[in-house]
Prior knowledge:
binds adenosine-5'-triphosphate; binds potassium ion; alpha+beta; 23 helices; six-stranded antiparallel beta sheet; 685 residues; Calcium-transporting ATPase, cytoplasmic transduction domain A; 4 domains; 22 strands; elongated
Amino acid sequence: MNAAVDRTPSSILGPAQLGAALPGALRKLDPRALLATPVMLVVELGAAATTVLTALDPSVLGVAVTVWLWLTVLFGALAESVAEGRGKAQAASLRALQTETTARRVRGGGSRGGRGLLDLATDEVASTDLRAGDVVVVAAGERIPGDGDVVEGVASVDESAVTGESAPVIRESGGDRCAVTGGTTVLSDRIAVRITSDPGQSFVDRMIALVEGSQRQRTPNEIALNVLLGSLTVVFVAVCTSLYFVADHSGARQSVLVLTALLVCLIPTTIGALLSAIGIAGMDRLVRRNVLAMSGRAVEAAGDVDVLLLDKTGTITHGNRRAHEVLTVPGVPRERLVEAALLSSLADETPEGRSIVELLGAGREVPAGATLVVFSATTRMSGLDDGDRRVRKGAASAVCAWARESGGSQPQAVLDAVETVSASGGTPLVVAEQIGAGPVRLLGVVHLKDVVKEGIRERFGEMRAMGIRTVMITGDNAVTAAAIAREAGVDDFLAEATPEDKMALIRREQAGGRMVAMCGDGTNDAPALAQADVGVAMNTGTTAAKEAGNMVDLDSDPTKLIEVVEIGKQLLITRGALTTFSVANDVAKYFAILPAMFVVAFPQLDGLNVMRLSSPGSAIVSAVVFNALVIVALIPLALRGVRYRPAAADALLRRNLLLYGLGGFVAPFVGIKLLDLLVSLVPGL
Ligand SMILES: Nc1ncnc2c1ncn2[C@@H]1O[C@H](COP(=O)(O)OP(=O)(O)OP(=O)(O)O)[C@@H](O)[C@H]1O
Ligand SMILES: [K+]
Ligand SMILES: [Mg+2]
């Protein structure tokens, strides 16, 4: 590897990982770094206090408590550092992609349109000098010097350095597969690329920041939990302070040292220490599945997704919509249809347009003086104006509307051909022309064919089992949409959708209280990707789509959402389970150690002293040691995550409450008792 290639899960907490994580962990002991986790900050302050107290008045108890309080803080820092370390190797191999290369920048290219760029003069510049807007020419065998969109030409590109997938991909101007990533290599042909990112802001830069965890921001859920843990801490500080005065007053004086140790045992240190590691590990699990999540909030949202919207072309289908045949109609000679279809496509830079020229044979030039009419998702037509002749091809509804406006007729034969192509799941493009102000004449139909991605049906079935509804949204007509929807097995579809329609649908679902995920690849999907709670852009898609979404799937597999949802659920469940465990643990410690601490002063407490710990000193040291070791014991679970099985949410909740609540309550009684047997052997305790 390649960043994304090394995805074999290594051992989670071996000596190697611990060794590598130690320097990072020591840096995290800086109190300023601990401000974000109030629980651990209190432990550190406590450790500092007992250090001073023990220095002033040395005792075996003081040394034992102090050492283990420092270890408690260190274990927490270590958990976070181990979690971060898992991304470091990936980051290093990604950096290898960023070595400086020489780029051929087109002179004056930035101000020109998309044609003829490949023939312009170029200057050699360092890749680091490229800025957004520059146009470069890249030929076979060369590395693409920066992120950008192909503005002219078609090439096969090796993206394995980024995606881990060794099969080359096609990148071409005009369509939804125009985006290229800096650091990848052109295998054949020559392309002109308009650079879209300034140095330091590229996709690989973002990937590095992501796998290193340096970009991680706490999610709202995490912040809320931290506030809750902080409040619990404040409550226990109050409890321990009042305990000091109560004990003093009743003649069972407790030292500040012992009460500090007690405080640390009672505050939720387990979850406080592991919270951040849980979040980092969740992001890391996604990276290992080739999904880059730009926000932790999106990962959490993924755990609660109700509806998944998918774009059709390039998401559900492979996205190389290609001309397959032309369908003639009575009264229009085939040559005339072919000529019009060709004319309307000669200047069309979209893959669809180019495939028509390929099918019908080139050999025709764009007539001098003709004006091009480029395709847009709103007009859904493209073509050319040559003098007073207008030739168009486009979606049936769009071309028919144009014909109607001009007073032209819509022959049944054309409508039948449209129906035939659509019913087979193909995309019909109606070809038409208008001379002067005369009526628009429909000449025939071009059949564009695309293939549904393999295995997608079964995966949508799995989503249904998880309670997620799938809806396909497409700019294509309703009949085609229905045919593809049936073949792919989606629950519902929306046809003839404009970019605004896609976004409006998401808003409606969200207004109904549902959590919406969207998978898409096109520039016309960008608004919807931005609006969705979870917006997954296909890596094959456009730069606009990748920037609008909050995740990028390097494998461009929309069914990857299943894994994303599982990881999201797993993250929420893990955090919930460890919080339950932590709090139950602390409550149990209260009952386990308080009677042991006070039994000497109040023999009547003996009935409550179920633990029969050997001495108050041994009780408190055992509790502190147990408290610290629990953190270490749970690091692997925090990193790996609690296993998620598709099951009803409340059944899962019951099971976890039982397992982690009850387990958390029982564990200290057993653990502290065993430790006490050992600790009581130490002279002086
Ligand atoms: N180059 C083109 N020239 C003319 N018409 C086109 C061209 N490409 C597509 N169309 C027509 O415009 C419609 C909308 O295309 P577009 O690519 O915007 O769809 P979309 O909204 O991305 O949906 P999806 O990707 O799910 O099919 C197509 O169904 C087709 O009928
Ligand atoms: K604790
Ligand atoms: Mg599309």
